[in-house]
Amino acid sequence: MDWTEERIAELKRLWSEGFSASQIAERLGGITRNAVIGKAHRLHLPSRPSPIQRQMGERRQRSRPAARPVAAAAMRVAPVETVRAAPPPPPTVVAKAPVPPPPKAFRSGPIDYSSALTLSDRHCHWPIGHPNEPGFHFCGAAASPGRPYCTAHCQLAYRKTDDAAA
């Protein structure tokens, strides 16, 4: 679909008369609502408030009752005692589970635990130290069944779901 000078002039006329983009697309034929909006934007046609917001404003105006004259006697209001709201209760403090003690120094056996290649699935793979520093090694203790770490390091590595939610 090409925008000819006649179609652009018709778009400008319909836009200025307040037709919606859908109505303009219908009248021009062979064009979508979004194409009308895009062309209007590129032509720098003045934007209009959203019809949704317009309807909401109309509803608010219609729903307000008309002001009625009120007698002076009816305007006198008895004094109202102010009631102070109770302060909100202090937040509930949930005690966290105690932190497990750090793992004890494990045995140093005849196996060299400095490489992950020397460990089997039965050994703890917890790294001790920094890999780029001398003395780096893995724990090497007996691993918990189905886990890569011993019981003490499992306590450090994994959290219970209750602890995670806190």
From TrEMBL:
Instruction: Indicate, by first and last residue, each region the UniProt record lists as having compositional bias (Pro residues).
Output: 86-104
Highest taxon in the source lineage: Bacteria
Taken from the record, one Pfam family name reads GcrA
**InterPro entries from the UniProt entry:** GcrA
Q: Where is this region: Disordered?
A: 45-67, 82-105
List the protein's name: GcrA cell cycle regulator
Recorded source organism is Stella humosa
